């Protein structure tokens, strides 16, 4: 079953326990739906639709559903919410768009350079169309793929995107689904792949009407909300809801990959895990269309099963984030050693992650107070691990949302860049990092409900207790200025110090492209304040203090002051 579009106009909806379901069409009236007979694909039934569509206008209509007389509620598979998540849905036909990216052949994102951005804060306007105007900057930087934080519909005007409640709809403040299509086309026209961040482990706290329709929620909860029903009664259709959503982005909206948020929070005890089903879907779609589709998992499990091939009893995902690399870089450059940084504070942590991929591979985790992880399989290349020195979580989940720029001098910022871009992993940058942006990226929300806003702010302060951060410096997420402060300041590029850092990043991305993406790091060592490794004939040496390497030799292929030098091995 798909969402209602002008092509079907029968307004299908799944409501397995309902006694009656009606569709309310704005300006036309209320029409009863009839049960759809069960099929081999829907053995449990529960679907409803119009037996015969009424006479409808040629333009998209606004509609919602009454369930046992309650509502109207927006369509669970709504493709557009022009007036917000509490209001009626609007028909949208994604296939009406005349795509112009037929020449785009796709891109293998394993080993590519990924650039993570948030639409609302990447530009002053905070829209998809405004982001298009900045894409040439990313091309000149050497980026291969743009990873977009969640754009699905949420309540309010701005937040990070992880409180979405209608997973198929693009937030209207960003420009809606038509702007999203223009954005994907613009990226492909410039040779940039698009990775869309999706959240399948929880729903936001406001505007979630899915339980009115069926058992979308399961037992238990994570930090972010009640678990999704992936393995309980009637969970087949809940899983189909997720799989169809993934296919919507990958097929209808032409995206090249999905970043799967916090997969460790997915509670699924079936013999075939949802992640494996998603991987099969992506691979089959890639084979059908001739364009590779990449699935990247965010996981803190350090479990190679995620990226192990299905023939070797893994899930067959294509890559996963590796927080251990971030923690090692951050702790050794900043000196922070509290909370989860405690185990990574010595240079030996860098040596281990560059040589083995994971730091915690069955070792004791003082933060978790237990052993954690397992070794990476010998046949899994490090390019299946996405590494970064900064990202939305590691900046935004700090008390003040401060970037490395607030802590490190240019030399150590240059070291962080070199370790990320020249290391053996798939590198990812966070927007603005490439010019050492001074703007913070803080946690911001716009909950219209005062009680929810208050609870969010109080919960935010409580989160920082274990990290030892001062609650007095935690900004109010509901304060509009918290959002405004988090927008990039593009005028910083006119400053010599920022221009120098941008030039350094461009030098590193060009150097990275000159060697095989899957070249491993060899001769990894630390001695007397200098961390070094070799890759494909290059010797990379960095001073963890940001100085002390001395003048670079004449045959250096890249250098940044006395902090970094790259020579031929």
Describe the 3D structure.
With 569 residues, this protein is of the alpha/beta class. 26% of the residues lie in helices and 19% in strands. Strands 9-10-13-16-17-18-21-22 form an 8-stranded parallel beta barrel, surrounded by 5 helices. Strands 2, 3, 6, 7 and 8 form a 5-stranded antiparallel sheet that branches. The protein starts with 12 loop residues before the first strand and ends with a strand. 49% of the residues are buried.
Rg calculated over all Cα atoms: 24 Å
Q: Give the strand order of the largest sheet, numbering strands 1, 2, ... along the chain.
A: 9-10-13-16-17-18-21-22
Looking at the structure, what is the overall shape? Answer: globular
Annotation, overall tally of beta strands: 27
- The N- and C-terminal alpha carbons lie at a distance of 58 Å
Low-confidence regions:
none
How would a textbook summarize the main sheet? 8 strands, parallel, barrel
Helix content: 25-40%
Which percent band covers the strand fraction? Answer: 15-25%
Mean pLDDT: 95
Number of helices: 14
Helix-strand makeup class: alpha/beta
């Amino acid at each position: 079953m798909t969402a209602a579009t002008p092509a079907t106009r029968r307004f299908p909806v799944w409501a397995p326990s309902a006694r009656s379901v009606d569709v309310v069409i704005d300006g036309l009236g209320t029409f009863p739906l009839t049960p759809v007979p069960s099929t081999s694909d829907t053995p449990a039934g529960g679907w409803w639709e119009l037996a015969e569509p009424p006479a409808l206008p040629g333009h998209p209509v606004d509609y919602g559903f009454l369930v046992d007389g309650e509502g109207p509620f927006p369509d669970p598979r709504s493709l557009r919410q022009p007036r917000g998540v509490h209001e009626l849905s609007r028909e949208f036909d994604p296939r009406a768009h005349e795509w112009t990216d037929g020449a785009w052949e796709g891109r293998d994102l394993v080993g590519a350079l990924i650039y993570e951005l948030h639409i609302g804060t990447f530009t002053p306007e905070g829209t998809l169309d405004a982001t298009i105007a900045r894409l040439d900057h990313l091309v000149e930087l050497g980026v291969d793929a743009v990873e977009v934080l969640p754009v699905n519909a949420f309540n309010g005007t701005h937040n990070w995107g992880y409180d979405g409640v209608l997973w198929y709809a693009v937030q209207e403040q960003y420009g809606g689904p038509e702007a999203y299509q223009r954005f994907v086309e613009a990226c492909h026209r410039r040779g940039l792949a698009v990775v869309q961040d999706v959240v399948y482990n929880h729903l936001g706290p406001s505007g979630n009407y899915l339980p009115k329709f069926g058992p979308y929620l399961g037992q238990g909860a994570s930090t972010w909300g009640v678990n999704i029903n992936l393995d309980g009664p009637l969970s087949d259709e809940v899983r189909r809801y997720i799989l169809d959503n993934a296919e919507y982005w990958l097929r209808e909206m032409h995206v090249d990959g999905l970043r799967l948020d916090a997969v460790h929070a997915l509670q699924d005890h079936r013999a075939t895990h949802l992640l494996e089903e998603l991987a099969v879907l992506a691979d089959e779609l890639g084979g059908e269309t001739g364009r590779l589709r990449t699935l990247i998992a965010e996981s803190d499990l350090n479990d190679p099963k995620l990226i192990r091939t299905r023939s070797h009893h893994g899930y067959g995902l294509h890559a996963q984030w590796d927080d251990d690399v971030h923690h090692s870089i951050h702790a050794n450059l900043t000196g922070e050693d509290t909370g989860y940084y405690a185990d990574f504070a010595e240079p030996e942590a860098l040596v281990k992650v560059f040589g083995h991929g994971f730091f915690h591979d069955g070792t004791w985790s003082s933060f978790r107070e237990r052993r954690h992880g397992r070794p990476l399989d010998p046949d899994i290349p490090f390019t299946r691990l996405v590494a970064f020195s900064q990202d939305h979580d590691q900046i935004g989940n700090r008390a003040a949302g401060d970037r490395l720029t607030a802590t490190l001098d240019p030399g150590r910022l240059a070291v962080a860049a070199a370790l990320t871009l020249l290391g053996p992993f798939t590198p990812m940058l966070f927007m603005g990092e490439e010019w050492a942006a001074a703007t913070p990226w803080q946690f911001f929300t716009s909950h219209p409900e005062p009680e929810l806003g208050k609870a969010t702010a109080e919960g935010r302060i409580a989160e920082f207790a274990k990290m030892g951060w001062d609650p007095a410096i935690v900004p109010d997420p509901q304060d509009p200025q918290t959002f405004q402060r988090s927008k990039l300041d593009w005028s910083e590029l006119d400053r010599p110090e920022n221009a120098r850092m941008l030039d350094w990043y461009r030098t590193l991305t060009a150097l990275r492209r000159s060697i095989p993406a899957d070249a491993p790091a060899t001769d990894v060592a630390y001695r007397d304040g200098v961390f070094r490794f070799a890759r494909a004939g290059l010797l990379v040496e960095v001073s963890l203090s940001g100085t002390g390497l001395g003048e670079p030799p004449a045959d250096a292929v890249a250098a940044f002051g006395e902090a970094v030098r790259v020579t031929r091995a």
